[in-house]
Amino acid sequence: MMKKRVAIAFLCLLFAAPLHAGIMAAATRVIYPQGHREVSLMLANTNKYPVIVQSWVDNGEGDPESNQAPFVVLPAVFRLSPGERQGLRIIYNQDKLPSDRESVFWLNLYEIPPVTDKQSQQSRLTLAMNTQLKLFWRPKAITATLKDVVSQLTFRLVQDNSGWAIAVNNPTPLNISFTSIALVNDTVEQGTLSQMDMMTRAFSEKRYPLEAANATLKEGKIRYRYLNEDGASIEKTVPLGR
User: Which of the listed residues 138, 166, 189 is the one where a domain comes to its end?
Assistant: First the structure.
């Protein structure tokens, strides 16, 4: 799953960019197996203009100044002409991470559009796009894949002061990212509210509120879609637990 953030400010140095990321990555997520010296990711500039790209890994803050993640990205700053490609090298600095579960970080691709002499003399609205891709550091001790472990997930219908929700329990060492979760029967489907990050972390439980404040469907099955290692969305239907 990718997140896109737009930084907005009135400046004299940049002009307004289109409200979409023009830097496209060859993958929507990065798996970093322990023991690898580095992993790579290919980028391409699909804009009709050149851009400056700054890249770094953090814990989701989206701020290069708060970078405390144990990864170095090379090159950290570079220029891409229209249609040009650039390979990124992501290098783990060997800081100690948990060995019994995946660790999650975010790879940031911050693109800055160009400026002309005429535009530099005018006050413009800056739209600088930051695309964030999940980076999963996977210890050697974990040999299972997401396909192997999703069968261990359990889903319960729960209620609290905020209303009804589907509680997802993940007893596995891998982090599971969803694109959708719904409670269904033969005629009715109740989906969960969309969230920026629909991920249930390893060895944890997370609640996903239903779109309807009052659940009209108390029994049925769970239909969900999760993202595999390649970023493909896979659909499964499983019984609703208790």
Answer: 138
